[in-house]
Design brief:
Length: 131
């Protein structure tokens, strides 16, 4: 079920809320570019959150999801309608941290990087553990 179906305005004004997952944005300027392009469509009021990479749009009348996705594409990005129950950002859910030996390897690598970055310059860090 799409979020458009869930968030449809029930007061009879013909305004509905659509959420799009936008792919390819990497900064605030990207989000503003997409937001400005969407807001140029008559009957559309949009905001774009760069952190979640989600465009939230209140659309009136005959504006379709396809129209909205096409506008995002014209801005240079890709979009698809957000599906109910989707968690995480547009690039997929947040991965779980590794467990077991992989986690130990990441931890040792992080310690080594900290030591190389700060330890040799008098930052007070000690040499990395050698296990």
């Amino acid at each position: 079920m799409a979020l458009t179906d869930i968030a449809a305005n029930s007061n009879g004004t013909g305004v509905r809320r659509v959420q799009l997952d936008v792919k390819g944005m990497s900064c605030g300027a990207c989000a503003r570019r997409v937001q400005n392009k969407l807001n140029k469509i008559d009957g559309v009021r949009a905001s774009v959150d760069i952190k979640t990479k989600v465009a939230t749009i209140d659309a009136e009348g005959e504006v379709t999801v396809s129209d909205l996705c096409h506008a995002v594409q014209e801005a240079g990005y890709r979009a698809e309608e957000r599906v109910a129950g989707t968690l995480g950002n547009a690039d997929g859910p947040n991965p779980e941290p590794p467990a077991g030996p992989a986690r130990e390897s990441v931890s040792r690598t992080a310690k080594l990087l900290r030591w190389l970055t700060f330890g040799h310059s008098g930052g007070g860090a000690s040499a990395p553990d050698r296990r």
